[in-house]
Amino acid sequence: AEVAPGAVHVPDWLPVARQRELVEACREWGRGPVPYERTVLPGGGVMSVRSLCLGRRWVPYRYLGAVAVALPEWLAALGRAAVAEAYGDDGGFAPDTALVNFYGAGARMGMHQDREERSAAPVVSLSLGDRCVFRFGNAEGRGRPWTDVELASGDLFVFGGPSRRAFHGVPTVFPGTADPALGLNGRLNITLRETGLSF
Ligand code: MD3
Ligand code: FE
């Protein structure tokens, strides 16, 4: 479903077996040299989400060159397949970064824009585990109008074109709603991005 121009939601895109593999990969990355961490914002606020970055390193609000953990080619290929699924063509999508967000009990993400990437490429979002409310706003500011969409495990969302600059956030995660077969207590979101930065 096209929620707004360039914003395409594909519910239940990933089969459960693939979701399980992704959850296991997310666990494995967390045991590596770049653990999940709460981001401390320049104003002193601490995000409730725990994040990990593959490929580039992200600090608020920019990417750094040092690549501590490579972005696996199979994950980049999944991103290309995702763009092809949403738009009918992968458009040569070549992500160099995956940002993985973990939402434990009570975690949420305030309304924000993703402006660090120097590329017109879309962002691919994959959801795993607990269901949530994803709030998709407008490019002018944090306020209304917005559209609330429920995201469930296995859902794909691709944000390109005009939707790329829209404010968005995750106001609510519904605890205990993940398929028990996933063995995940909380919600994981993987976003694949082209930073457009070369180091
Ligand atoms: C719309 N993550 O990592 S994914 C983020 O579910 C982020 O963890 C949320 O917002 C999450 O920056 C939402 C959906 C998403 C990701 C990137 C976007 C929507 C976007 C970039 C531009 C517009
Ligand atoms: Fe975002």
Instruction: Show unreliable segments.
Output: none
What's the number of helices? 2
The CATH superfamily is known as Alpha-ketoglutarate-dependent dioxygenase AlkB-like
Q: CATH topology, anyone? A: Jelly Rolls
Structural class: alpha+beta
Q: Output the CATH class name.
A: Mainly Beta
Please give the radius of gyration in angstroms.
16 Å
H-E string: EEHEEEEHEEEEEEEE
Keywords: Dioxygenase, Iron, Metal-binding, Oxidoreductase
Pfam families: 2OG-FeII_Oxy_2
Cofactor: Fe(2+)
Protein name: Alpha-ketoglutarate-dependent dioxygenase AlkB
Structure characteristics:
single chain, 199 residues, alpha+beta, Jelly Rolls, four-stranded antiparallel beta sheet, binds N-(carboxycarbonyl)-S-(naphthalen-2-ylmethyl)-L-cysteine, binds fe (iii) ion, AlkB-like_sf, AlkB-like, dioxygenase activity, Alpha-ketoglutarate-dependent dioxygenase AlkB
Describe this structure in words.
The structure is a single chain. This protein is α+β, with helices and mostly antiparallel strands and 199 residues long. It has one domain (2-193): Alpha-ketoglutarate-dependent dioxygenase AlkB-like (Jelly Rolls), CATH 2.60.120. The protein is 15% helix and 36% strand. The chain contains two helices and 14 strands; from the N terminus they run E-E-H-E-E-E-E-H-E-E-E-E-E-E-E-E. Strands 1-2-12-9-14-7-4-3 form an eight-stranded antiparallel β-sheet, with helices on one face. It is globular and about 35 Å long. The mean pLDDT is 96. The structure holds N-(carboxycarbonyl)-S-(naphthalen-2-ylmethyl)-L-cysteine and fe (iii) ion.
